[in-house]
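ENTRY TYPE: paired fold submission
RECORD: A
CONTENT: sequence, then structure tokens
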Amino acid sequence: MSSHAVLEIQLSSLTHNYHFIKSKLHTQTKLLAVVKANGYGSESVSVAKKLEELDIDYLAVAYVVEGVKLRAAGIKTPILVLHPQLGDFKDIIHQCLEPSIYSLRSLEAFIKTAQDLNCEAYPIHLKTNTGLNRLGITERDFPSVFSSLKAQKAVSPKGLMSHLAASDDLLEREFTERQIKTFSNHIQLFEAELGPIPLKHLLNTSGILNFPQAQFNMARSGIGLYGYSNNPDIDKQLKPVATLKANVSQIHELQVGDWVGYNKGFVANKPMRIGTISLGHADGISRQYGQGKGVVSVGGGLAPIVGNVCMDMLMVELGDLQVQEGDMAVIFGEGAGQIASAEDFASGAKTISYELLTAISARVQRQIIE
């Protein structure tokens, strides 16, 4: 391996997950794939190109710069920008992106930009707040939104959307069902005022799996396409797209009382073998790991992280594992007969796979495997 660490992106796993998610949808339901945050930490261009080959209906990014990158790479599929900033509205139009309009302020600003650029019926998605209270047009602003849209011809609602707050938590089923009912009511209100809106979408990955009755005519999937679902039983049917690997740079034989790493992060209480792995918090494995939080797969077994994670290295206790210097350790993903789930690795430090996956830094080499 030429780099200190590599993130392998297995596109066949992406294909498998795509077909799994599609199998949960009605034939007529469109699928939007979320490729924000560099494809959930993987590599957005390669992921988007593979999804385009699979005839994905829509892509979504968080910010305009991510959509611009995909357009520059030749992606032609419609791209929804989930959190556009007002200063980027001209770029949205120039790059043929579609904004999620989440407030009266953003609607009025986008209409003005579209008018300045002589647009007619430019497609937008209107996002309403159904209970997440993060982004979304509030019901008190609906009348003003209707008035603003009726008074112009520069933009046209192509989609109506909202976002579920707890679709992965079946203990909160009642709350989610209230959100679904609220969104259904919003559709009726908007279409009564503005006429038919072609696309309606609410469900995320967990929503697709747990609330399939609310598919409307498009659903969105992010984490599920990358191999995780917030449900251990479903995770067994998915395949991790990203596998993070790093070298065992050196092995130390410690005696009782020997330190490992900075500030007595770990002190040996018995003779032991410690392996230094070429990966640290500058690569995305933060200091919340270590001290026994997090394990890596190496030598046919699992080795716990000991001491404090350093900027460029972390240390693991090897025990009796058959490991030599230069061997490869798998941090998460698939490899060497072991599966180290990103969800399991993250849970050891009381976080989630989303944070772990998207934190892997740009200096970790991406290797695309067709």
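RECORD: B
CONTENT: sequence, then structure tokens
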Amino acid sequence: MRVVSLFSGAGGLDLGFKMAGHEIVWADDLYEDAVETYRNNIGNHIVCRDIAEIKTEDIPECDIIIGGFPCQGFSVANMNRYVGDERNELYKQLLRVVGEKKPKFFMAENVKGIKNLDKGKIFEMILKDFAGIGYKVKHEVMNAADYGVPQTRQRVIIIGVREDVDFDYIFPVPTHDKEGRYDRNRWVSVGEAMSAIPNPDEPNDLPNHVYSKYKLQFNGYLGHRPLDPGKPAPTVTARGDNKGGVVILPHPNGQRRMSCREVAAVQSFPLDYEFAGNNSSVYRQIGNAVPPLLGFAIADVFNSYKGEMK
């Protein structure tokens, strides 16, 4: 498929679609460091502009529009969230572009917390909005750990199929299971994911293999909980101060924070995927990303569509 990507960030979702064999023809994000990361790893087809200022006629024709629209206003990690948060309106830009470009499909990603904002009324409104522009809409909460990501990251995935398109999107069957049941692989542990990564304090040539010096203090709060190396990591977040420290996951050894490279591995980015910007920016880009392996699982389903493409 020809893919247009909105709110592309550092390119995790786009990388997953590329891994599934699709072609990203255009992408957009407003965060300069993330755009530089994207260009260095995926391609020059990304523009660094506010999507609200871009006319739909300037966006190429495509088969699908994808986007993990900004979620800070929806996230349960945002204790100050409220219905009127202006960031909650950013999904309407995705709605606008989908409504005017009319691709065969769209795919939207967001945090699990979006479903219970204002007792579910906001999520219901979003689904009705997309149905109202001519799409059959379905959604599911997907756990990245079920698809080989060494992280228990739950995200709502919304799939839209244009009403005149004969295709029933079936959400991918998990390839992994917590206990390795149903002839599936066991969840990938954080220890396994980092087994090939050397100590950042020793000579190495891995990009972004530096870590926050923010002090470890295990008190049960987010970013201050010990990690079991035999289990997937908890959700990597993008929260934190400008120094990039307070919510960076601790290393399983309990002696330091994870390096940017290690957090990227927990998000299933390849070891040679290089991020631009300072440590704080890199941590934030990684935390905001869709894990590429989750993106691949979602994207691979579209390979079963046998209709005509652009």
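NOTES ON RECORD B: The longest strand covers residues 135-143. Confidence is low (pLDDT under 50) at residues 241-246.
STATUS: closed
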